[in-house]
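Re-run with default settings, no changes from the original entry. Doing this only to confirm the output is reproducible before filing.
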Amino acid sequence: MSLMSVLTDIFTWWNGATVGTRFALSRGGEFVGEDEFGNRYYRLKNDPEKNAAFGPERRWVVYSGYAEASAIPTGWHGWMHHTVEAPPTAESYAAREWEKPHRSNKTGTREAYRPKGSTLSAERRRPAATGDYEAWTPGS
Protein backbone atom coordinates (compact mmCIF):
# COMPACT_ATOMS: atom_id res chain seq x y z
CA MET A 1 0.00 0.00 0.00
CA SER A 2 1.49 3.36 -1.04
CA LEU A 3 1.72 6.44 1.17
CA MET A 4 -0.76 8.26 -1.08
CA SER A 5 -3.26 5.42 -0.71
CA VAL A 6 -2.92 5.49 3.09
CA LEU A 7 -3.36 9.28 3.20
CA THR A 8 -6.39 9.06 0.91
CA ASP A 9 -7.97 6.47 3.22
CA ILE A 10 -7.34 8.63 6.29
CA PHE A 11 -8.46 12.00 4.99
CA THR A 12 -11.25 11.32 2.48
CA TRP A 13 -14.75 10.00 3.00
CA TRP A 14 -16.15 10.25 -0.53
CA ASN A 15 -14.32 7.40 -2.28
CA GLY A 16 -14.63 4.22 -0.24
CA ALA A 17 -14.17 3.17 3.36
CA THR A 18 -12.22 5.45 5.67
CA VAL A 19 -9.93 4.21 8.42
CA GLY A 20 -12.72 4.77 10.95
CA THR A 21 -15.15 2.70 8.91
CA ARG A 22 -12.62 -0.10 8.52
CA PHE A 23 -12.05 -0.04 12.27
CA ALA A 24 -15.81 -0.30 12.91
CA LEU A 25 -16.03 -3.20 10.46
CA SER A 26 -13.25 -5.07 12.21
CA ARG A 27 -14.81 -4.52 15.65
CA GLY A 28 -18.36 -5.57 14.89
CA GLY A 29 -19.44 -5.12 11.32
CA GLU A 30 -21.30 -7.95 9.63
CA PHE A 31 -21.41 -8.09 5.82
CA VAL A 32 -25.02 -8.26 4.60
CA GLY A 33 -24.75 -8.04 0.82
CA GLU A 34 -23.67 -6.22 -2.31
CA ASP A 35 -25.71 -4.45 -4.97
CA GLU A 36 -25.27 -4.31 -8.74
CA PHE A 37 -23.08 -1.19 -8.45
CA GLY A 38 -20.59 -2.95 -6.15
CA ASN A 39 -21.69 -1.06 -3.00
CA ARG A 40 -21.29 -3.26 0.08
CA TYR A 41 -23.80 -3.20 2.95
CA TYR A 42 -23.09 -3.92 6.62
CA ARG A 43 -24.79 -3.97 9.99
CA LEU A 44 -23.61 -4.14 13.57
CA LYS A 45 -23.28 -7.79 14.59
CA ASN A 46 -26.28 -9.02 16.50
CA ASP A 47 -25.22 -8.28 20.08
CA PRO A 48 -28.16 -6.99 22.17
CA GLU A 49 -25.91 -5.22 24.71
CA LYS A 50 -24.01 -3.27 22.03
CA ASN A 51 -27.11 -2.57 19.93
CA ALA A 52 -29.09 -1.20 22.91
CA ALA A 53 -26.78 1.81 23.07
CA PHE A 54 -27.44 2.69 19.43
CA GLY A 55 -31.22 2.22 19.35
CA PRO A 56 -32.31 0.65 16.05
CA GLU A 57 -29.93 -1.72 14.34
CA ARG A 58 -26.92 0.20 12.99
CA ARG A 59 -26.62 -0.16 9.18
CA TRP A 60 -24.18 1.38 6.72
CA VAL A 61 -22.86 1.20 3.17
CA VAL A 62 -19.33 1.30 1.76
CA TYR A 63 -19.56 2.73 -1.74
CA SER A 64 -17.50 1.25 -4.54
CA GLY A 65 -16.01 4.48 -5.72
CA TYR A 66 -17.45 7.95 -5.31
CA ALA A 67 -19.98 8.17 -2.47
CA GLU A 68 -23.32 9.19 -3.94
CA ALA A 69 -26.32 8.35 -1.77
CA SER A 70 -28.69 8.41 -4.73
CA ALA A 71 -26.79 5.42 -6.18
CA ILE A 72 -28.34 3.07 -3.60
CA PRO A 73 -30.94 0.87 -5.37
CA THR A 74 -34.52 0.96 -4.10
CA GLY A 75 -34.42 -2.42 -2.34
CA TRP A 76 -31.30 -1.51 -0.38
CA HIS A 77 -32.65 1.99 0.31
CA GLY A 78 -35.62 0.47 2.11
CA TRP A 79 -33.34 -1.73 4.21
CA MET A 80 -30.91 1.11 5.02
CA HIS A 81 -33.75 3.33 6.26
CA HIS A 82 -35.43 0.58 8.33
CA THR A 83 -38.52 0.59 6.08
CA VAL A 84 -38.11 -3.17 5.69
CA GLU A 85 -36.30 -5.50 8.06
CA ALA A 86 -35.03 -8.06 5.56
CA PRO A 87 -32.26 -7.01 3.15
CA PRO A 88 -32.85 -7.66 -0.57
CA THR A 89 -30.44 -10.61 -0.40
CA ALA A 90 -32.73 -12.38 2.11
CA GLU A 91 -35.89 -12.02 0.04
CA SER A 92 -36.78 -12.00 -3.61
CA TYR A 93 -37.00 -8.27 -4.22
CA ALA A 94 -38.14 -7.16 -7.67
CA ALA A 95 -38.26 -3.51 -8.67
CA ARG A 96 -41.70 -2.22 -9.55
CA GLU A 97 -42.40 -1.03 -13.08
CA TRP A 98 -42.47 2.63 -11.99
CA GLU A 99 -39.04 2.45 -10.31
CA LYS A 100 -36.40 3.82 -12.63
CA PRO A 101 -32.73 2.82 -12.69
CA HIS A 102 -30.20 5.17 -11.15
CA ARG A 103 -28.86 8.05 -13.22
CA SER A 104 -25.97 10.03 -11.82
CA ASN A 105 -26.38 13.71 -11.05
CA LYS A 106 -25.26 15.71 -14.09
CA THR A 107 -25.18 19.11 -12.38
CA GLY A 108 -21.94 20.91 -13.18
CA THR A 109 -21.18 18.76 -16.21
CA ARG A 110 -21.73 19.22 -19.94
CA GLU A 111 -24.77 16.92 -19.75
CA ALA A 112 -26.55 19.11 -17.16
CA TYR A 113 -30.04 20.32 -17.98
CA ARG A 114 -30.02 23.83 -19.35
CA PRO A 115 -33.45 25.28 -20.13
CA LYS A 116 -34.18 27.33 -23.22
CA GLY A 117 -32.89 30.85 -22.71
CA SER A 118 -30.19 29.87 -20.20
CA THR A 119 -26.85 31.61 -20.75
CA LEU A 120 -25.25 28.17 -20.67
CA SER A 121 -27.58 26.54 -23.20
CA ALA A 122 -26.45 25.67 -26.71
CA GLU A 123 -28.55 28.48 -28.19
CA ARG A 124 -27.09 31.20 -25.94
CA ARG A 125 -29.89 33.51 -26.99
CA ARG A 126 -32.84 34.48 -24.93
CA PRO A 127 -36.22 34.54 -26.63
CA ALA A 128 -37.41 37.97 -27.71
CA ALA A 129 -39.39 39.96 -25.16
CA THR A 130 -43.13 39.85 -25.74
CA GLY A 131 -43.84 43.39 -24.58
CA ASP A 132 -45.90 42.35 -21.56
CA TYR A 133 -43.18 43.31 -19.07
CA GLU A 134 -42.96 46.78 -17.62
CA ALA A 135 -39.80 47.60 -15.69
CA TRP A 136 -40.13 49.01 -12.19
CA THR A 137 -38.68 52.45 -11.59
CA PRO A 138 -38.02 53.88 -8.12
CA GLY A 139 -40.51 56.44 -6.88
CA SER A 140 -43.32 55.46 -9.23
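The chain has a mean pLDDT of 78. The first strand starts at residue 29 and ends at 34.
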